[in-house]
Amino acid sequence: MSQRPWDTARDVPDIEDIQTPWKLIKILKFISLWVVALFVFGLALCSKTSFLLLITLSNEGTKTLQDGMKPIALLCIGCALITPSVLLFLKSLWKACYKTSKPPRLSTVALVLFFEFLVAGGAAILTIVAMPHLDIVINVTILNGVAVFSALLQIITQCTTKERNCFLVPSITAFILILLAYILFLYLYITKDPTDKKMAIWVGLAVVGSFLVSLNWWESYFRLISENISSVFLKLLFRDMKKCQNLLNILSSLLRIAVTASVLGAYIPLNKMDWSIVTSIPSHETKIIAIIIGVQLISSALCHWFSLVACKMHALRRCFILPLYLASLAVIVLFIVPVIIYYQDYKTGLNGTAINFTGYCSGVVDGRNQNLTGSVFQHLVYDVTHTLCFVDMSNILDIGLLTGSAVSWWLGLVLATVHLWYFKVLRIQRTQDLFTRRLYEGTFIEQSLLLNTRYDIQTKNRMKISRALDTVMVYLCATMWHENYDEMMNIIISIFRLDKYRPKNNPKHIDFTFEAHIYFDDAFENVEGSRGRHLNTYAQTLVEILAEVYAIFTSIDQGFFKKSQNIPDQKIITTPYGGRLVVTMPHGNIITVHYKDKELIRHKKRWSQIMYLYYLLGWRLMNKYYARLQKGEDEVSLRAQVEKEKRNTYLLALDGDTDFQPAAVMLLIDRLKMYPRVGAACGRIHPTGSGPAVWFQKFEYAISHWLQKTAEHVIGCVLCSPGCFSLFRAEALMDDNVMKKYSTKSTEASNYIQYDQGEDRWLCTLLLKQGWRVEYNAASDAYTNAPEDFKELYNQRRRWGPSTMANVVDLLGSTTVISKKNSSISKLFMFYQLIAFASSILAPATICLMIAGSFTFMLNLHGSDALVLAVIPPLIYLILCFYIKSDTQITIAGIMSVIYAFLMLVVTMTIIGAMVRDKTILTPSSLFVIAIAIIYIVTAILHPQEIQLVFHGLLYILCIPSAYLLLTIYSMVNMNNVSWGTRETKPAAGAAKPEPAAKQTDVQKAKNTFQQYFSWCKCCKKSNQTSGDGVNLIPESPQPELQPQNSIVEDVRIPEEEQRHLEPVFDSPTQSWLTQLQSVSRDMKLEEDSLEKEEESFWIELQKKYLEPLLDDKERQKKIVNDLRELRNKINFAFFISNALWLVATFTLQLYETTLSIQLPKINLDLEYTGENLKIEPIGFMFILGFGTSVIIQFLTMFYHRIYTLIHYVAFLETETTT
To answer: Which segments cross the bilayer (predicted)?
Structure first.
């Protein structure tokens, strides 16, 4: 920042979030919350209404169903009771087989099954036996009475705590109100007709049944009771129940089904009803029953799911509690209002003739015709009215008792669940942390959802802090090499954004703290005339950017005429690996730049990652606990602390050009916080840049994330978490066979391909093998520069292709072990990966077949001739690639890509023309185009912020041969080239190009040679004196780069005596990187500091064990080159032979298409059968089947993933600001 008052114009980069469409997201959030609230309310209303209609149809006096058909309604009630148990049984059985499950103790099984027996029996007695004999108001509200035992257990649980509880009085009041409601109910029904013994039995069974059902949620309070009392038996019992939940759910589900079936099977004959009517019910009544039970079952399951969504969205009050409270009231209104309207209409039609409700019941309701000649709705209203005829609605006392019991039950439920208004819900909280039981009760859906929500003790002075609220430590670890100015600016601004978003030592934000570390590869270079090595231009640019961004972020909130504050002093440190710059950002967080000297420590990205893994996780995390152990602290306690810190320490891997927002980091942190077995999570990577190559990559990245990564996330695990923006758990990285194996030096040819060409994929392979889950979060956006040059793109994919193949083969070969060790990966998922892998291998042959199809249509060639013509160009390119240089290969590929692009345009038009000519869409190519278009368009619509990428899809289609044919050939043939391929010769922005050295005379050459020699000797001597173990920390290059010479050219020889006494000349303005950096950094003063001895020793030991620079062993390099070439030849032989076999098989089938073909009916564009058959070879049919299955799986999983992404993002917006 300039200090001159007249120089006020600034060049300030964008530091605000201009990429996220916040207006669209807020509108989407508003709509989502309203939709969820309405669905919860509406589905609860449908579930309860349909269930009560079944109860009403079971009543003896109702006429919608004849008396002989009552078993049908009772059977449907039984189905409503057991359906949740069936679903729970299937889910628990799947988890028990898919994941590890331990058998419970006999005492645990006995206790759980005892309660389940009572609850199942009570539910069956209440709904099947008792409720059909009660009025509609009691039937609606008595279900609220199932909160009686929960209210009692709340009182007991709160009394066991030693602190004063906020909700003790509401729980006591709820218990009293529910008991009062039962008393009013008993008084109303028993005193109405004391001689009616049957009614007394029904009423008694209703009370007993509802009391038994109220035992259903005892587990919510048993957890807290066992924690607050000193009973070891109860603690062990609860622990056993938690560990063996799957098997207990299987047993309890089977018991519930058996008990419900027994009660239903016994009650029908006891009540003198016949089961034979089930097979002879008329069609009209069948439709009525089927609609009602269908609505009940579907709405109950969906209401449970939407309630779960509401809780995960952090909208507990407005979208969960309030809609469920109002559902019970709405059901009463829905049933009573039509009764009143029909009654008033009848009275109005009598022209003043007096009639009371009792007369209306006997004359109209009970005297109507049994046949369903009128509206079904009218008959249902009369049936509901019939249930109220037992109560004299014209009697004020009866109305008062009925209303009092209904209101008391409802208020009792509200007070028993009032603690939910203060229930602390975390973002995307796990279902098991929201609800105690997996089972919902379909017959009283709103009561079961409210009472099943986890109960916690809430006091005035404290709130329990769950494990998920522990403060986590996040290390941002970026690797740099040859990034330009704009790329460095992106990541530095992103880090400073995070510093502003989460200031250090701010009590308002205790969820996480962070440090940023940048590891700069090959940062040093030799400078003639200097005693030490200097930082190169790229490294210097980073320091300038740090000072610039610091000034920008400190002047954001200052007044116009306020003088800018000076940037505080920062630290520079000489380290055994090179140097370090430590910058304290404006809000207290630290960013550390580690400058690596490749002559001191091993360079390249994987070794930079190993460097920060051992420094942050080995030295920073573990070393302090070993020191405390040596001081005599308890080992068990220290071990628990270590495990906790490992679990709550995360590493955010970044590239040197990654641009991200703080929200993206928070969304990744949520995944690791909530799910302890998640070892890594990645976000949505957006390539940036301009030009056709970038446009192609934008769409390619889009479909990769939209479809492939979501499918992997939902049905298994993400196989690759990209190193440009991924969050890793320290506990996972420090697990056996992960970090240690990742530090392995490549010794074989296959190692160079799998380990070094795609290090992020190999790290994920190690995590998956060790049982950790890798996830994808589509709401976490990050932006990184993509190759804009055709050559750079091909070289990048030349690295990625073989590495991906090697890691997938590694995983497929370990399918049995991984499926047992990793609970998220099944053999079925690995089979899906096998199909995808086979498809990628056969991609070149598939492209050739597609091109051959276009030749057949355009040139009217036979299929076999067209196939031969389509194979010739790629075959020639394949042969040439083995003999010409890689740059020439890319040039040829570029020319062929343009030709193929025009051909693809013709192919697309050809497919459309073929559909019009043949008047059918049932061909492999036609189905391919139509399916791709529909899937991509619908998927893009479901990603509204990225819908513009569909236009890049047109270019993507034209580039399919280049991407899947030519690029595949290039990457396979050049597999033995293990160089990085990108950024290797790209100059830094603003860097001056070195001038060519002036031509030297013999005298000048001799003089420079002696100067280099003496300079090298003196530096070695100084290093040996200052380094205790003889390690040369800052060695000079034996052959430093010559600088331009400006001396006069003279043909003069230097005498030998004078040569012997020549001293090295140190005429550089700066003699080390420290003074160099201090002179470059004018706006930010740098003070020299030093490492602690212990840390310095750590770096020296780490270098010796893992990071020593690799020796320049010519023989070994020659052997590796030969091994790589041999490995390339073997893999290429298998790869291209597979494609050749695929093509030969197709060629053969086309020669004999009359006998070896599948006949399919020909369908025209109106989807009508034309009377002709279409011949398709078996391979084409397999392609249709395989491709269709894959696309359907990916699309369905994408839709599922979008829903949960929306849930997560809405929850984030509810709890975080958009700073």
So the answer is: 33-57, 72-94, 106-130, 136-155, 167-187, 199-218, 247-268, 288-308, 320-343, 399-422, 830-859, 866-885, 891-914, 921-942, 954-973, 1133-1152, 1179-1200
Q: How many helices (H) and strands (E) does the chain have?
A: 46, 15
What angle do helix axes 197-213 and 148-160 make, rounded to 10 degrees?
40
pLDDT value, residue 242: 81
Buried b vs exposed e over 144-158: b needs ≥16 C-beta within 10 Å?
bbbbbbbbbbbbebb
Of the chain, the end-to-end C-alpha distance in Å amounts to: 25
Q: Please give the torsion angle defined by the CA atoms of residues 389, 390, 396 and 401, in that order, rounded to the nearest 10 degrees.
A: -130
Band (1012; pLDDT cuts 50, 70, 90): very low
Residue 562 sits at φ, ψ, to 5 deg, of: -75, 135
Dihedrals phi, psi of 1169, to nearest 5 degrees:
-70, 130
Concatenating the DSSP letter of every residue in 874-911 gives: HHHHHHHHTTS-HHHHHHHHHHHHHHHHHHHHHHHHHH
- The pLDDT of 390-408, averaged and rounded, is 85
DSSP secondary structure code for residue 687 in this structure: E
Q: What angle do CA 172, 175, 179 make, to 5 degrees?
A: 140
Reported confidence tier of residue 526, pLDDT bands at 50, 70, 90 = confident
**Whole-number Å distance between alpha carbons of 408 and 405:** 5
Going by pLDDT thresholds of 50, 70 and 90, the confidence category of residue 556 is low
Alpha-carbon distance of 500 to 440, in angstroms, equals 44
* d(C-alpha 581, C-alpha 604), whole Å: 20
pTM above 0.90, yes or no: no
Give the phi and the psi of residue 782 in degrees, each rounded to 5: -140, 150
Helix crossing, 924-941 with 843-859: angle to 10°?
A: 120
Amino acid at 576: P
Distance, CA of 347 to CA of 1127 (rounded, Å) = 95
Look-up: residue for tokens 């590495």?
A: 803
d(CA 509, CA 673) in angstroms, rounded, equals 16
Which tens digits make up the pLDDT trace of 938-988?
999 999 888 899 999 889 989 999 999 999 999 999 998 888 766 655 443
> d(Cα 745, Cα 751) in Å, to the nearest integer?
8
Of 765, 783, 786, give the one whose Cα is nearest residue 774. 765
d(CA 356, CA 328): 28
Strand order in the sheet with 678-688: 659-660, 773-785, 678-688, 725-729, 649-655, 472-480, 512-520, 590-596, 578-584, 570-575, 1086-1089
522 φ/ψ sector (left φ>0, alpha ψ -120 to 50, else beta): left
d(CA 428, CA 670): 8
Which tokens hold the place of 1098? 């750590």
Is-contact 481 248, C-beta < 8 A?
Answer: no
Q: Are 592 and 517 in contact (CB under 8 A)?
A: yes
Q: What is the largest CA-CA distance in the chain?
A: 143
Other Cβ atoms closer than 10 A to 692: 14
Q: Could you identify the residue written with the tokens 């002696």?
A: 1010
CA torsion sign, 385 to 381 to 180 to 133?
A: positive
3-state secondary structure of 1091: coil
798 within 8 A of 974, measured Cβ to Cβ: yes
Q: DSSP labels for 909-965?
A: HHHHHHHHHHT---SHHHHHHHHHHHHHHHHHHTSGGGGGGGGHHHHHHHTHHIIII
Per-residue DSSP letter, 69: G
- Based on its alpha-carbon atoms, the radius of gyration of the chain, rounded to whole angstroms, reads 38
CA distance 1107 to 611: 8
Digit-coded pLDDT (tens) for 697-738: 999 999 999 999 999 999 999 999 999 999 999 999 999 999
How are the residues of the chain apportioned to helix, strand and coil, as percentages rounded to the nearest 5?
A: 65, 10, 30
Contact 149, 215 (CB under 8 A): yes
